[in-house]
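Q: What does the assembled structure look like for these inputs?
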Amino acid sequence: INTGTMIPLFLSATVLLILCMTSSANGGNILVWYAEASHWINLKPVLETLIDRGHQVTVLIPSVSMFMKTNEPSRFRYEPFNASFSLEAMETFMDKVFQFSMYEMDQMSYLQIYIKFMDMMKTNMKFSLGYLDGVLKSDTTMKKLKEGNYDLLLADPIYPGSDLTAEILGIPLIFSLRFSIANNWERLCGQLPAPPSFVPAAMSKLTDKMNFSERVWNFVFYILQDIVLDNVFWKELDKYYSEVKGESTLLQYTADIWLMRTYWDFDFPRPFLPNFKFVGGIHCRLAKPLPEVGAFVQSSGNDGIVVFTLGSMIKNITTERANMIASALSQIPQKVLWRYRGEKPKTLGANTRIFDWIPQNDLLGHPKTRAFITHGGTNGIYEAIYHGVPMVGIPMFVDQPDNMVHMKSKGAAVIVDFNSMKTEDLRDAVNTVINEKSYKENAMRLSSMHRDRPMSARDEAVFWIEFTMRNKGAKHLRVQAHELTWYQYHSLDVLGFVITVVLLLILLSIKTCKYCFRMCCNRKRKTKAE
Amino acid sequence: INTGTMIPLFLSATVLLILCMTSSANGGNILVWYAEASHWINLKPVLETLIDRGHQVTVLIPSVSMFMKTNEPSRFRYEPFNASFSLEAMETFMDKVFQFSMYEMDQMSYLQIYIKFMDMMKTNMKFSLGYLDGVLKSDTTMKKLKEGNYDLLLADPIYPGSDLTAEILGIPLIFSLRFSIANNWERLCGQLPAPPSFVPAAMSKLTDKMNFSERVWNFVFYILQDIVLDNVFWKELDKYYSEVKGESTLLQYTADIWLMRTYWDFDFPRPFLPNFKFVGGIHCRLAKPLPEVGAFVQSSGNDGIVVFTLGSMIKNITTERANMIASALSQIPQKVLWRYRGEKPKTLGANTRIFDWIPQNDLLGHPKTRAFITHGGTNGIYEAIYHGVPMVGIPMFVDQPDNMVHMKSKGAAVIVDFNSMKTEDLRDAVNTVINEKSYKENAMRLSSMHRDRPMSARDEAVFWIEFTMRNKGAKHLRVQAHELTWYQYHSLDVLGFVITVVLLLILLSIKTCKYCFRMCCNRKRKTKAE
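A:
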């Protein structure tokens, strides 16, 4: 049985299936919640496919955005709304986040990190609510949305407010997300089971194989993150929603379908529910030819090339770090394509070329590509998985350290630390993933896992979006656990009752035995006495 | 968005997909474990599809079987083995089981039922081990199997021994099953999460909506069934396996992929795992024309027909019950097709015709069919779901009462009791599901749910069977929970540790406070004394 011949045929069959589906999909009217950065990058291919299939896609777009631009040519309809803060305020905050995550955190105590983190989460929440003002508290926007007669709202829940908007519009809601802090929303709102004994909490840097102390840490981490989220997210949002609705509201924050942007090639196998669909790698596609950088890539000869980017968020790093990195890269035999917008480092080798932007997916799919140096964003990792390229991770923040731990534990990556790494660390790491065969083999294994499923990630996402429109929701996939309290869910009330009954029965039988025994003794005594 | 036009197009696309898949599947060599009755009926269509796709299918077939016959024309290769008991012994036992389930159980106390049930389970286990003697303890059979160079073993785990056989042959294993008692194997061997608060235990007759006392009963039921299974199944099988392997063995009883024969049209939504695939309705297919019974069906006019069968296991019922049923059926305006092998009842109406065998799926798919009277077997129910036919359930044993509770709770069926029902009960039940519109509507809703999924059940089953052969197992879908003990899984050790630490900290701070307080007091006293 040959996987090689299987996959292309399967793909073409899938295309046929899609063509058939296209002809049958009567255009739906889809509203898309605003999103930023990788979240927006990840939504786009699904929206493009939905438009190809005859649906109308309208995207809510804020007046202040670092990534969403209405002036770019696009097939989406845009519904603009006002954010109650300036782009400068947003950018200053993001710079602070980067500074903290990349440089300051390493020099801080746990307590300091915690205080700073809470502070940043609170500011972030203020921005989120600033966006919401322009939607939920704007009569103009809400009137337009109501008149839009949408069939569905598609949203990344990291940008809050979509659930209340869907409720007010009376339409089904689909979440698309990578993860929430400690899987808090998935667990507490989506009822996704997450036993801390083998499901590592988000941002814990743990794998599914944990020893006792790691399991203790994971357990505590879940609780700590729940407390953080309760304080900086739930309380604020409950208050805001209550204000909008004019009545006290406790958030549900749940959706008809949860499109999770991972799969078992990337994530550790875990329990899930019928309305959770794992569609990691939505944006992956076959590589296209590379006219712009073709000559440079070809000049690499047998040594091949290394692709290096720190993602769409990081534009600049300190001169010292840039020089160190450039120096390390100059010591490897491969040609390096580095996406970097800062000043050209002095130590830049002849083998390294800096680009403002690189066609990342097409480069990773090029047969000459030997390794990918990455900050560990989900989108980039998925492109590397898709094309079977081993990785060197320089993770920065949020899910990136976790993501790289996943790739390392699956044997497809080496991790180096951005702040503490020296020239030789980075150089050795790149040489290791290129020269030790196991890294390439494991990357190819992940690639095979990624492709060997009944439907591509994008087709599956599109199927469930259309499914939810067809059925006006997805009620029959919703577990009854939503109607239970936490102690009912864990059967604690039942357990308490059963234990009480058992104890009472034991007590009763002891009392009865004692009584019988006493009666017997009395009779014997009486008999003796007679 | 129109579901009506969507479904046929989707089906044709699926056929295209299958054709594409066919050309790419290099023939695998599949071994199939023996099975009986509905278990065998359900496996057949998958095996047929596998043969269509170029695989070789070899079925282990015992010398003693009520359903598997080597002399029927078939495209399967057969591998016969000897069972160490006679067909008569088997048939006598099955008759006893039917007698108990259909007539005797109603007159027994819970304790009597329990004792009788345990006794029957033990006898059943003896038969199972009697079959196993012909495989695992037969050098001839094991030699042939080893020489067969199989790529995969496909088995219904209700017939034990397949796991050890797969282990000895060193090949991957796929389970296909409806359920095990209290989901014992799925939970304890497959690590499938089953919170008793909303996942009803098998054979509990409960739904996913339970009040407090039902949750208590469900909780206790899980424990009781685990105890039963531990005594009649695990201990016996552990002993047998240890004997075969020549070393003490604790059963794993798990597989690479679990093909569960339900879906959310039939079952209640519940948590599951990446290697559990829900493929209920594998055998469903479009109805074919009905030359044999066509005239009788057509003669029903606008009233239409009712299809009635008690399944492949029940061949006979008492004259009294048969007369009662015939009398009830004679009072409805529909024509009735009754599959029955007993003596012709005296009260049989002109509208009812008895058949030795009926083309059940084709009849249920006929546009004149108004209702299905069924014993509640999974296969029959799935055919009714597929064709959107409301049901009257007369459940007998094992999963049948549960199955009918599912259909009733979804509003597509009425249940009557075989022993206590009177003529008017059955008549009214049939009239209700035919005349009250909601039953037909709900049946059609289930039919739509059943068909509206990315892939048909059979295609999905075939995909995962081929997937497992391609990948020589399905390791990356296996949760790490398999490596944990039950108290580790539930984090009880972690919880104990955390509580101890917290208590110690509290104790320490109290002691410290007390000490400080005493020191202060002492100093004050001293100060005063001075």
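Chain A touches chain B through 73 residues (CB under 8 Å).
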